[in-house]
Design brief:
The complex is a heterodimer of chains A (about 450) and B (about 160). Chain A has about 450 residues and is an all-alpha fold. Chain A has one domain (about 50-245, about 305-430): Cytochrome Bc1 Complex, Chain C. Helix content of chain A is about 55%, strand content about 0%. Chain A starts with a helix and ends in a 20-residue tail after the last helix. In chain B, strand 2 (about 65) and strand 3 form a beta hairpin. The chains are: A mainly alpha (about 450), B alpha+beta (about 160). The interface of A and B includes residues 185, 201, 203, 337 and 431 of A.
């Protein structure tokens, strides 16, 4: 009997070691193995700087954005099982796409909840992209070799907005139809915009062709491009040496020995602190003779923190989705615009600008803003190369005094857009007239 | 000699790499162009650009008739003169509403008088006046894709 138990144990451990290549003891070797022998965890470094996991460094904003993308992918795939991208009028007298919304909301188990979650997560993602950008800029983290990653981040931001926008049309209600209608008409103002618009809509106007094209873009093309660019974004963070942070100082507190785990063999070293070089990120030689090493194992502290953030995001989003229903108006009616017709909120700043002047507000100002923001780090590099003594390169330093002007301008840009959006959402009523926010207005802006 | 050899090999390399990337680039450009053309709409499934109205259905003198699907208002100026005005706002393409003073756009507040001339709001141009043709079978054909200056009347 004992023999049988032994054999069963041996078999079990063979199974285990064929899946996991490590144990769970408290040694530096194991902590490393856990990270690099797991396909999901190996995206992250084995060792990170101790300041990287401080809330102050990143505020977890990029992480939240990524989690929202994952949640959107999962909920989106689930919603696809019940959705039909068709404007054909069904037996209930409603367009198919719209009646599927009603079906989701009233019949499908969990349908309404998942739709709410998808919608609120999409809004949240746009907001968190903006916050993440603000964090990166104000802490100077777009510099110090990370300039190109800033550009990729900006493209990811644009993709996020475009994904939201293509998803906005799919319910085929009044909100969707007129929001998209106004948005594509803005595109028409741009030089060559009419051509882009034609390809996007597949017709001369928003209709059944536009729905199928937006659907394909929304569920296949854009998420794939986005997933790829996210991988590039993360890859470059690793290769650029982790999160931006100011240089270590010699009088900094040392990470306690316990952090590095025990040493199993009878080594003269008590801890695995000597376990230092895991990868060479930059430079020609391994780093040696450093007085204080501020790198700590990513397992378990980083991973635990990331899971806590994931739980918080899912929990908060679930709560919002239970409490608030995603907006759904009457079925799309191309002959009767809602009054007012508002684009989704992240476009309302643009719509507000457009209401003053089509070309300047719709193309010139947003073009300068998007292009300018995207190439901001290169503008700084250009100035640093051309002007002697000009230096704005302070990666990882929050509100660096030397960057006061840049930071003020960037915050100013955010306030400018925020004010326009608030005016668009709360202060515009029928016929786009100025109203007080407590007056009832229907017709978009969600 | 050795130097020259090196030069030669680097030139060969350049030709090899250059032609590989060049061919790939050509193929990519060709594919891209084809996809662009593939994506370009060739058939419109929406409301046709031109539509027919029977002469018997014309509004009375001084009256107007609104065609909702075609976003057009047909106006009878006198016994022999008719005109059609597009109801598509020249600002961002919303459908304008006919009101007593003229036309109002609900999207961004453009205001037009009853001839479609801009009197307020962000609209850059007068509402399009449309071309009307008399076609056989006692009918007129209105082209919603046309754009004529204001006060273009057609004889019936």
């Amino acid at each position: 009997m004992n023999e049988l138990m032994e054999k069963a144990k041996a078999l079990g451990s063979k199974f285990y070691s064929s899946v996991f290549r490590h144990n769970f003891d408290n040694t530096g070797l194991t902590k490393s193995k856990i990270m690099f022998s797991n396909v999901l965890l190996h995206i992250q470094p084995v060792k990170i700087h101790k300041r990287s996991i401080k809330f102050k460094t990143s505020m977890g904003l990029g992480l939240v954005t990524f989690y929202l993308f994952l949640i959107l992918t999962v909920t989106g795939i689930l919603l696809m099982f019940h959705y039909v991208p068709s404007t054909a009028i069904g037996p209930d007298g409603l367009p198919d796409a719209y009646s599927r919304m009603l079906n989701l909301r009233s019949n499908v188990f969990w349908g309404g909840f998942l739709r709410n979650m998808h919608r609120w997560a999409a809004h949240g993602m746009v907001a968190f992209v903006a916050l993440h950008m603000l964090r990166v800029y104000l802490s100077g983290a777009h510099r110090g070799g990370r300039e190109f990653n800033w550009v990729i981040g900006c493209i990811l931001g644009l993709l996020t907005v475009f994904l939201s926008y293509t998803g906005y049309l799919l319910p085929w209600d009044q909100l969707a139809f007129w929001g998209v209608k106004v948005g594509t008409e803005i595109a028409k103002i741009a030089p060559g915009g009419a051509l882009i618009r034609g390809i996007l809509l597949g017709d001369t106007d928003v209709g059944s062709e536009a729905l199928i094209r937006f659907y394909v873009l929304h569920v296949a093309v854009l998420p794939v491009v986005m997933g790829f660019l996210i991988a590039v974004h993360f890859f470059r963070i690793r290769k650029d040496g982790g999160l931006a942070r100011p240089a270590d100082t010699t009088n900094e507190k040392q990470i306690p020995d316990e952090e590095f785990g025990e040493v199993k063999n009878a080594s003269v070293f008590k801890s695995a602190r000597s376990y230092k070089l895991v990868e060479i990120v930059k430079g020609k030689e391994p780093k040696v003779n450093e007085e204080v090493d501020q790198m700590m194992f990513a397992w378990p502290k980083l991973i635990v923190r990331e899971l806590i953030v994931l739980l918080a995001v899912v929990g908060f989003l679930s709560l919002i989705s239970v409490l608030f229903d995603a907006p759904l108006e009457g079925p799309a009616d191309p002959n009767h615009p809602t009054n007012p017709s508002k684009a989704p909120w992240y476009f309302l700043g643009l719509q507000e600008l457009v209401s003053y002047h089509g070309f300047i507000g719709g193309i010139v100002i947003p073009g300068i803003m998007v292009g300018g923001v995207m190439f901001l780090p290169y503008i700084e590099i250009f100035q640093e190369t051309m002007i002697k003594g000009f230096n704005k390169n302070y990666p990882g330093k929050w509100f660096a005094r030397e960057r006061n002007l840049e930071n003020a301008l960037f915050i100013g840009l955010y306030i400018f857009m925020l004010v326009l959006i608030i005016i668009g959402v709360y202060f515009r009523g029928e016929n786009w007239a100025i109203v007080y926010p407590w007056e009832h207005v229907s017709g978009g802006g969600h | 000699m050795g130097k020259e050899e090196k030069k030669g090999s680097s030139r060969r390399e350049l030709i090899a790499v250059g032609s590989a990337f060049g061919l790939m680039g050509l193929a990519a450009a060709g594919t891209g162009g084809a996809i662009f053309k593939f994506m370009f709409p060739v058939v419109s499934y929406g409301v046709p650009q031109k539509f027919l109205v029977s002469l018997d259905d014309l509004p009375g003198v001084g009256d107007e008739l609104i065609f909702e699907d075609q976003k057009t208002v047909l106006r009878r100026q006198s016994k022999t003169e008719i005109a059609a005005i597009s109801l598509v706002c020249t600002h961002l393409g919303c459908t304008v509403n006919r009101v007593e003073t003229g036309f109002l756009c609900p999207c961004h507040g453009s205001q037009y008088d009853s001839d479609g001339l801009v009197v307020g709001g962000p609209a850059p141009k007068t509402l399009h006046w449309l071309e009307i043709k008399t076609v056989p079978g006692n009918q007129i054909e209105i082209d919603t894709g046309s754009s004529l200056p204001e006060n273009t009347f057609f004889a019936v």
